[in-house]
Amino acid sequence: MTNNDADKTALIDRVNAQATAHGAFDYLGPLVFGPHLHIEHFRMKNGLDVLLLKDKSAPVISFHTWFRVGSRHEKPGKTGLAHLFEHLMFNEVEGLPAGAFDKKMEAAGADNNASTWLDFTQYQEAFPKQHLKTVIELESKRMHQLVLREPQVDSEKEVVKNERLFRVDDDVEGFVEELLWKTAFTQHSYHWPTIGFMQDIEGFTIADCEAFYRAYYAPNNATAVVVGDLNEQKTLSLLRDHYGHIPPSVLPVEDIAPEPPQDAERRVHIDQPTTAHKLAIGYKGPALGDRDHVVVSVLLEILTGGKASRLHQRLVRDLTIASEVAGFVGPHHHPSLIEFSVSARAQHTAEELLAELDRELDQVINTTVSDDELSQAIHRMELSTLCSLESADAKASSIGFYFTLLGAPGAVFDRLQIARTTTPADLRFAARRFLSRQNRTVILVAPRPTPSPAPAEETAVSNP
Amino acid sequence: MTSLIVERDSALPIAHFTLAFNQGSLVDPPGKEGASSLLLRLLRRSVPNMTAPELDRRLDAVGISAGVDVSRSVAALQGTCLARSLDQAAELVSAMLGQPPGDEQEFARLKTEALGEWTDSLDNDALVARRFFSRKVFQQHPYCRLTSGTPRSLAQIELDDLRAAYQELVVAEQLRAAFSGDVTATEAERFFERVQSRLVVDTARPRADETDPTVPVGRRLCFVDKPQRSQVQILIGGLGAHPKDHDRTALYVGNTIFGGTFSARLSHEVRSKRGWSYGAYSQLGHDRRRHSFSMWTFPQASDAAACIALQLTLLEQFIERGVSKSELLAAKKYLLNSHAFALDTASKRAALALDQDLYDLPPIETFKDRILAVTLDGVNAAIQNRLSASNLLVVVLGTASEILGPVEASVGHLATREILPFDQQD
CATH classification of A266-447 is 3.30.830.10, yes or no? Predict the structure, then answer.
């Protein structure tokens, strides 16, 4: 037994001395978080995972709660429920009327927010360290004492409908993104958007919300990540006192169909109220846990990362047919998409963009990249990774994300290590594995002829 | 003024640097808006004996990112590098800033890119609405001119204009710098001196200084017409605070109560109670002169008129009746506690200190005392003295043929009404 193990055993004994049956902790050991830090992993008897990272650089703490439920767990006809639920979690809690949750958080100086995606829902607070008790109390209450009733549910549905208009229906890029995934996935639940389809959002009932809450909001489906200027015993004691009485739930068995292999390109032409032609492409790509996910990330740095990247150089700078090029590989539990999006300059068309993009992708399939180019990409990744970990809140996000998806809270550093050992041969293999044309969905967007806006007019108005 | 700020934190092997000149796009000649922005962007691409792509590859090869940020009053080159590459960053940044722009071909390419960016930006309704608000709220004041320029003004700019802007902006006396992260004071000084030694020395040019914008009279509606909008962007406001106002902090607290947080009056009434808009906020802009106060919402087109009417009523009540003691206490508590997040990383501390220098703001160390000193009477007086529900600009981006009538009726007491196409340049 190491000194650290002995210390933690003693710590757990002290905390568990006052625990209920559900509220006692097991110590599962330290987990590496980069070259200098480590995370302590505890699990409560009710299943709540607890990850603690001491970071004394400022007198603040970040508390994140990650639930292993996202839009992939929804059913057709009920899309967007996980996201609506994220909104509802800021409403009434037993003993706290609607609005009181936010007021208490604000009084503590907490910067709080939440997000939902395909595989998870997470809630986060960053606050001065003396307010840890308030935050844990409020977070634990809404895990099991949320009140779901009118008019809050109806009002929140309206907010989400407006969010959908903002992000999707009145936003060209959001609309194209939704169409791309809807077309690329026919069987898997990645087919629908996290925000949900409008008719589904309109149709949710309180009963739908209650069933979802009972199924997924439980300690055995959650991880509490605490990062900052914390005292371990105090933090564990507070968690014990506020989560220890919450029973685990019987989690639904996930029922998702794998996406069948794609054997032909899918191509969709649309028009949109936009000023320029646009192109979006999605290749079926690796899951986050696949080593090739990192290799593809390096490949995307070479293709689209910054102004020195191949696609920027070719499409934006040399040919001047595009104003912007971007690439992204979905960081998801199941295999998802490697995406490219390009905006055309002037009257150049999406077809022209596609032809040039194909030439560049053929290059990485047929030839190897140089060591210099690979080294540049790795340095870019190293810099952006380190920049993404500066604050306690940023560290908590990374820990929660990778633990929820991969069970490896320090994976951000593991990925960097894989990137550093990636070879030109790895890149070519990944390009050949994923970037075949039969494996892709292409959306070509043309500007929609629209009625001209009214000509400029100025009128002095005489008031009654 | 302090020229060099260093906030060391060696927890991660990266360093941030900002080289800021304390003049910005206000120096652009009339009709050539966008010149200072183009200048900084061109400098970022230019070092002797290297093409722009070669420079980008060199930066990537050693782990340096660099970009520019130009506002009305400040022009800055900023970046981040792996700590081991700090010397190379100093070499490259000093080379970027150390000579006037000379590459005609790169300049032509950059202008074309900037024109393309304008076209792309027309898809972003929130940005377009904000641009119209900024242009209209400041009327004839220089603050109404766009830092990014317009296609018309960009077309007028020649390389000689950028050379002239270089002589005015990129001068040693105007330079301020902030470093943070894994960088020592000695390393920062060396970096700073290396840049400064390459710059023009010119003490003859005082900082451009303007008078305050004037208060617009009456309620003015600027309807930005864009076809096929199911959602509208609404910005309502007028003039706000001057950094030297004695009641600047009181007004800041007042704005926190009105629309500065998720539980503030505006968000509560518009979002939580009615579900009309995903976001509902108010803010006080800041610069060296009096800036704006504005509310921002984005409801469905069918709710736009009702949302405007509600916002105007809320503003009238806010000005007439002021805030309550309990609201003031809650806001002060929030501001005092959340202040920790203005200072929780070295890069934030450095940025705040630099802002303090560039905008001649009160020391950040006095923030808590200033908040504690705010009284109920002080907040309510500041709201009444500085804000107006009568002299207001209402910018609505939506489809005029569908909602202009109800929107116009909802504003009430209208002095002027403008309908402008969303792609109008100026």
Answer: yes
